[in-house]
Amino acid sequence: MTDPEKQQKRTPDQFVEDAETGSHTSGTLRQGSAGAYGYDAEAGEMRKLSQKLDNPLKGLSQAELLDSAEKYCVLHGMEEHLEMFKRGALLAAQPHNFDTVKDLTEEERRRLEEETTHKWRQPAMMYYVALISSLAAVVQGMDEAVVNGAQIFYYDILGIAGTDTYHTTLQGLVNSAPYLCCFILACWLTHPLNRFFGRRGTIWISCFIAGAASIWEAFTYSWPQLFAARLLLGLGIGPKSSTAPVYTAECAPAPIRGALVMQWQMWTAFGIALGDIVSVIFVNITPDVAWRLMLGSTVVAPIFVCAMIYFGPESPRWLVSKNRHAKAYESMRRLRFTELQAARDLFYMNALLEAEAEMQRGHNLLAELFTIPRNRRATMASGLVMFMQQFCGVNVIAYYSSQVFVAAGRTRSEAILLTMGTGLVNWIFALPGMLTIDTFGRRNLLLVTFPIMGICLLITGFAFWIPDLNAQTAVVAVGIYLFEVAYSPGEGPVPFTYSAEAFPLYIRDVGMSYATAVTWCFNFVLSISFPTLLTAFKPQGAFGWYAAWCFIGWVVILLVLPETKGLTLEELDLVFSVPTSKHAAYQVKKTGWWIKKYLLFQRPADIPPLYEHDALSGL
């Protein structure tokens, strides 16, 4: 790139974009213009700190790196590993420049090259950690799903069957109890549990609680007892859902970290399918036994996780945060092929934690989610996708589809068998979601799938007007199955992926806690309200309600949700510094241009890009 080209490539601090006229002004922004895009002095300082987290070792000289490595080893009693950490420090600063490290062995060079050429070639222990997290996700999915089949039995047996408001409220309250607990208490226990017991300990405790709650559910004899047991189940769901993906992320090497963390969604979907299969297995047993076996069957998966978790290593990052560096190095060596890779990653991890501590000192992180414009827009966007993950109606199907099929005139056995199909479709079509999310983009996936979901929900609801029972059931099943086909690659994996990307690094943990609380809050709202909604408005109105939210969500996503796929920290700051009103105005104009070009076959004048940046020009 020539010098003039370098001068023309503007950074966020040199960016001015007028969405009204499409004109662009080069040069450094004045304070007023910067403020208009959220770059006040405080936001600018936070941006610099976040950029430092991108690689806290960047810019250090070789001598400084070697000195830092020596101080680190001496301070933490690891002098016997000093030479390895010196080599690791040089590599951590420039991970793709092997020439910075002298005398690489053939094994070390081969393993370093494989991080790019064969990134899925990892030690068996790394896949053992991934297996534990996957089984924890299966626990989660089964805990959510088995109530779908069990409820068509225990409503009658526990005396809460009925279509009046009192009984439908009790039905919703019992079914939604775990998510009420998650929102009010369990999510907020995640941090103290992790602080005192570590990642492995928190996963063990939450799975033990989930298993104990499963047994309690199976031996309840009144709805208040079942409500209390399911409240306890929430204590097993909340911390586990936050901790297991983090445990994987902190153990995994960078090239496969994102892909492994995204497995949580896929294996949760598998757990939902497995829970539906279990319901099919037990449906024809004596009714008072069937629902108890369905709920009690979820004790099996937690037993496996509890038995396996302590054979895996503790998170090296957590051990470093507890100043147990020698133990962290032992843990990292189990997760990497060579000692050099372990030393590199641990030294980098320590530098990153020190930078985070410096960055967070003196800041009210929760308040800054809303007071700094750049953060506030990320908070709004993350809250939007988390809210729509619930109000697109997916958990109406996950929790109540068996009741819907019974309402369509099917027997209990037939209803649960049809419900099993929804779980299997959800899991199978989660697989292409993993492949498309990093190629097609988060925003595009949502814009394509939301209208499809809305149409499928309308088909499902309107099918209840079909007089022929067999035809009605067939159309209801097709509508629900096609909904799952659209949901699984879109609103399934996107919300957690998007939320993990949208926030600056210094505030990401707090931002993710907020986003998780939003989804559990509206999960509870949906779960408690649907039985009453179904009774009051019939299936046509109930499914029409959530179809309307799908179409509303499509419009709001079109107008206010920026794309985050494949963007650097600098580029994300640029994207989230554009005011929401400017973003919405641009998208309206862009939609009009698209309609003229592709639907009316006109040749409208091109619209200048919203973001004046090479990497963003296509957004």
From TrEMBL:
Reactions catalysed, as given in the entry: myo-inositol(out) + H(+)(out) = myo-inositol(in) + H(+)(in)
Subcellular location: Membrane
Ranges where the Major facilitator superfamily (MFS) profile domain occurs: 129-565
Positions with biased composition (Polar residues): 22-31
UniProt family annotation: Belongs to the major facilitator superfamily. Sugar transporter (TC 2.A.1.1) family.
One Gene Ontology term of the molecular function aspect: transmembrane transporter activity
Entry-linked InterPro entries: MFS_dom, MFS_sugar_transport-like, MFS_trans_sf, Myo-inositol_Transporter, Sugar/inositol_transpt
Pfam families the record matches: Sugar_tr (PF00083)
Listed Basic and acidic residues bias regions: 1-12
Record-level GO BP terms: myo-inositol transport; polyol transmembrane transport
Transmembrane stretches, start-end: 125-142, 173-191, 203-223, 264-283, 290-311, 415-437, 444-465, 511-537, 543-561
UniProt membrane topology term: Multi-pass membrane protein
Disordered: annotated segments: 1-34
Organism of derivation: Calocera cornea HHB12733
Chief location bin: membrane
Descriptive protein name: Major facilitator superfamily (MFS) profile domain-containing protein
Cellular component terms per the entry's GO annotation: membrane
